[in-house]
């Protein structure tokens, strides 16, 4: 990804993790039956939210974290021909350990 893209404030740039192409039983899932994944890797993070007192709250997430986000979260963006999702930090529901 290009280094010319930096999310602002409490926004995070996510790259979706591709869903499995087979079921647990080994059945192949056709492309038209696949749904978009709600799991992603953090690609870039902003500096954090600016609070009412003017101080900046640091981000809890970091580049490389694997996360789950809400189904209708964020805005899809295309960077260097690749699709990403731009979300606010509070739209991320969980982090995988």
What can you see in these coordinates?
With 97 residues, this protein is an all-beta fold. It has strands spanning 11-16, 39-45, 49-50, 56-57, 66-69, 75-79, 82-88, 92-95. It has a single domain, classed as GroES chaperonin (10 Kd Chaperonin, Protein Cpn10, Chain O, Roll), CATH 2.30.33.40. The protein has no helices and eight strands. Strands 6-7-1-2-5-8 form a six-stranded antiparallel beta sheet, with no helix packed on it. The protein has a two-stranded antiparallel sheet with strand order 3-4. It starts with 10 loop residues before the first strand and ends with a strand.
CATH domain class:
Mainly Beta
Structural class of the secondary structure composition? mainly beta
Biggest sheet details: 6 strands, antiparallel
Q: Give the spatial strand order of the biggest sheet.
A: 6-7-1-2-5-8
Which regions are unreliable across 5 or more consecutive residues at pLDDT < 50? none
- Mean pLDDT, rounded to whole units? 84
Report the end-to-end length measured between terminal Cα atoms: 24 Å
Quote the beta fraction: 35-45%
